[in-house]
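Possible race condition, two jobs.
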Amino acid sequence: MKRLDKYIFMEMVPPFLVSILVFSTVLILGKMTLLTKLIVSRGVSVMDILWLVAAILPSFLVFIVPMATLMAVLLAFHRLSADNEITAMKTAGVSLYHMMRPVALLAVLSYAITMFLCIHALPWGIWSTKQTIQKIVKAHADVVLKEGIFNDVAGKAVVYMGKYTPKNKYMEEIVISDERDPRVRNTIVAEKGHIVPSSDGKSISFRLMDGVISRVEGGFDSAQTVSFRRYDLNLPLEDFWDLSKVGRRDTEALDPFEMTMGQLNEVIRNGEPGTERHQMALLEYHHRFALPVACLVMSILGVSLGVQFSGGRKSWGMVIALVIFFVYFILYSATKSLGESGLVPVAPGAWAPNVLFGTLGVYLFLQTARETRFDWVDRMLHLWKRLLENKRFSGFFSS
């Protein structure tokens, strides 16, 4: 029996690891255009980008690991079923319940990995991401500015650049509305200019050429216009990016999703119930324990889908698995948003996806263990086949 458990477990390990690698790569590739632009155009170092990717990765992995668990179990049991090995095992007296032992081992392993990610890696990753971005902003202040749009500066100023060349930090068609002084509104229009390095690393320095400054005092009592050949303007970097909490790890400086479990417990224990911060901390606390349980839920679903969708129905099994996890993620996000707004109780909302899909998984597993075929799957496939054979529908689908 131990040899059989090891055999089934080893069937699940390769697709589990490959799924993690593939899903992680896909998600990271979605950010590669921006990251490459930061390296090539803005001069950000490769090490800073690699550290930023490492910091972002835990926020991906907390969802990737449960998904990889589902795919690993599904693919392993699909192969066992397609090769009639499950039938042979049942003939030898090994029921589907006994085959769940290696599945349980993988589920517990993925649960432990996800729990570590939620408890330790996720808050570290979020905090490190903010730290790295703040470091990049301080070293390369122009990353916060984009050409062709109005860049809002903390509601105190607006910067517009018609054209911008990151290589030499050259700007054209510049409009800056400076309202930092509530008594005076300055509108600066310049044909060209440069972003020059600041000596303190705490401001963005604009060197503007060939322009005018329109100054209007409060109440529009007086106005004046001044032309200039060269004008230097410094905007504090903290107006673009909040630097007041850089380097701080105390509870007051962190949002709940950045906190360690000890800090969350402190806010929940000492905070005033009903306040937004207390609600957010309680919600984050429950979700960090609820999300790893998804690994257990997905493993049960994977067994049923793998056995039922054998033979020519393999692709349908994978599609349904992806749909199930997508619906789980949507429900997870919806209950979290409703919990943040106070429309649903925190604990029931956080655990509702696991309860719903766990119940579904147990039901499907019991049906599979009794060798009950999912007739609804055959009816759905038959309907889909008829739709594809319909010329009108197939023509519409292909167009």
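Job #2 (started ~2 s after job #1):
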Amino acid sequence: MAAKSLTTRTSLWFTLMAAGVLAVMGLVIQISVQRHFHDLDRDALQGKLELVQHVLRNAAPSREAAIRTDLADAFVGHHDLLVRIRQPSGGEFLSAGHAVIPDALLAAPADDSPAVQEWSANDTRYRALTARIPTTAPGAFWTVAIAIDTRHHTDFLSAFNRELLLIGFGGLVLLAGLGRLVTRRGLRPVQDMVQVAARISAERLDERLPLERIPAELQPLALAFNSMLDRLGDSLQRLSAFSSDLAHELRTPINNLMTQTQVSLSRPRQTDEYREILYSNLEEFERLGRMIADMLFLAKADNGLMVPSRQPVDLRREVEALAEFYDALAADAGLRLQVEGEGRVAGDALMLRRAVSNLLSNAIRHADAGSTIRIRMEPEGDHVRLSINNTGTEIAPQHLPRLFDRFYRVDDSRQRQDEGAGLGLAITRSIVRAHQGEISAASGNRSTTFTITLPADRAVESPV
């Protein structure tokens, strides 16, 4: 079944609610009118009953014929009234009207405060009051029942209900039309959002919803929509930069391979010359292989496919092993490595060693000769903080937020010497995030510090 539009659904619900309200109002009005007619009938019956009581209360047996005539005359012209009176002896004294009041109403006379009783005969409904009127003789009572025909009320209610239904139906149709019109007007900002979304493309990501013209109820949606466009624009810009960087990084080794191959084929050469060219090509192939492996590693990390094992890791021992490995390289650069503190985390020892190794090699590469590279570990609550600090050229503040992007280099010339393909810090961040940690960089006063925060291994760190 085709989905209904929001305007149709909203106006439909509005119409249904209006129909419910009108139905309840009509029911309340009908009940009020019926109660009003009931009260009118009761007052009319009560008045006639008081008249009969006044006539019969002091009636003498010798005047019964005259009293019967007086009562019959009193009901002349009241075609909707019925009266029936029984003598104290039980005999029928008077019965007037176009119908006969049932014996059941006379068999159980009402008390001093009679209630209105109802019955139906020949599709006509009647209301009646019954009373006992004492005679001059002790213990003797007249039994009186007065009833009223309610057909005029029924006819009025039938006509009233028909008019009420017609008025309600007309009002409902009018409300449905107005509800649809108001809904369409109220949803006009949504149409504006649709038009903005329709204009958006890869070349036009600068479109934004004007928040000042959007109702308060839709502003959270508009804010989320604009934020989504901001993220898409940023992602597209990063993707474009990444594609450019990737093409640049792949072009250099491929050009080298092509040039060396073309030169080697330009004329016949000796076996040693071919071997030297093949060794040079092998270096370029190895670089391409490392780059592809790093890209696959990052792709797995981005798609949540890199799940590290959770084993207790002694950071002090891993860092000391790395310091020993890099000690010769640091000594050649005139640097000293200093390891401080302790720390135990839960994770994959090989992956964490790779992350710290990337930071340590980066610090050695950019540290001033004769300085000290400090590697410090310290527990902080449920986490362990590992920092690597080196003294050297500062990193400008505008570069710090993008240090961990792929292929990003502070040097805009992008000249490759020995710094690698620019994926080391991106890989480090992926490893840290896979361990539910965070990494940050700070630079100032000729000092640069990379800080990794990892969840501590509670089982290992808990006191014995």
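DSSP finds eleven helices and twelve strands in the chain.
Logs attached separately.
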